[in-house]
Amino acid sequence: MEEHAVVLDVSRYRPVPGKRDDLLAQMKTIAERASKAEGCFGAQVCTSNGDSDVLVAVSRWKSAQDLDSFARDVATAAARDKLTDLLGGRAQHEHLTPI
User: Fold this and answer.
1) pTM score, two decimals?
2) What is the DSSP letter of 99?
């Protein structure tokens, strides 16, 4: 099985004070769904040694189309909407492409 990601999605989320555990739980739910999605090689929630307040979601995808399909999925959109009230600022998203 091919396991070379074409797109790595990295998203950083800063929780509202007192809501870190709630944000973490919601992010883990989304990561579990992503890991089972077509074209996803894996997804997880991480902490950052650069900013201990931030939670980071990382996922690896076979193609940008697979990532887009997951992002457009109704259940994914609903789960993302739940994140909104838990965020203490705008999320930062980045797509990395291996060279």
Assistant:
1) 0.90
2) -
Domain range summary for the chain, segments of one domain joined by +? 7-96
Specify the pLDDT at position 92.
95
Q: Residue 8 and residue 67: Cα distance in Å, rounded?
A: 9
Alpha helices in the chain (DSSP H): 20-36, 64-72, 74-84
Q: Are 67 and 25 in contact (CB under 8 A)?
A: no
The domain 7-96 is placed in CATH, from the list 3.20.20.70, 3.30.1360.40, 3.30.70.100, 1.10.10.60, at: 3.30.70.100
Cα(47)–Cα(94) distance, rounded to whole angstroms? 16
Query: Which residues have a Cβ under 8 Å from the Cβ of 75 and sit 6 or more positions away?
Result: 33
Structure tokens at 90: 């705008």
Of 56, 64, 54, 55, residue with least CA distance to 95: 64
